[in-house]
Amino acid sequence: MISLKLTQVGNSVGVLLPKEALVKLGVEKGDMLYLTDGADGEMRLSAYDPGVAEEISLGEEFMDDYRDAFRALAK
Predict the structure, then answer these.
(1) What is the C-alpha separation between 28 and 69, in angstroms, rounded?
(2) Count of Cβ atoms closer than 10 Å to residue 22 Cβ
(3) H helix or E strand, kind and range, residue 20
(4) Rounded CA gap, 17 and 35, in Å?
(5) Cβ-based neighbours of 25, under 8 Å, separated by 6 or more
(6) CA triplet 67, 68, 72: central angle to 5 degrees?
(7) Suppose 17 and one of 10, 21, 28, 73 were both cysteines; which one would form an S-S bond, judging by CB atoms 3.0 to 4.6 Å apart?
(8) How confident is the model over 48-69, as pLDDT tens digits?
(9) Please, are residues 15 and 4 in contact by the beta-carbon 8 Å criterion?
(10) pLDDT tens-digit profile of 12-61?
(11) What is the pTM of this model?
């Protein structure tokens, strides 16, 4: 477990992430992180964007619907 410290940043409160956490998340300064609801009221911090997963799913569905057309175009 990694402990995180809350700190004052202007009129807001920020969280300082140690280098170990940045490496595990695969992020660096300027990248986006997402805080999502988990099971039993938990919160999850991740570099994974759930909105992108939905877009990919829709794209895969579209490709499945038009698989024959894509194969014909690829020839």
Answers:
(1) 41
(2) 15
(3) helix 19-25
(4) 14
(5) 17, 33, 45, 46, 47
(6) 120
(7) 21
(8) 776 777 788 888 888 889 889 8
(9) yes
(10) 999 999 999 999 999 999 998 988 888 889 998 888 776 777 788 888 88
(11) 0.56
Question: Element (H or E) spanning 31, and its range?
Answer: none
Closest CA to 33 of 58, 7, 15, 54: 15
Backbone phi, psi, residue 35, to 5°: -105, 115
Amino acid identity, residue 30?
Answer: G
At residue 7, the pLDDT reads 95
How far from the centroid of its chain's Cα atoms is residue 21's Cα? 15
- Are the beta carbons of 5 and 16 closer than 8 angstroms? yes
Contacts (Cβ under 8 Å, ≥6 apart) of 45: 25, 33, 34, 35
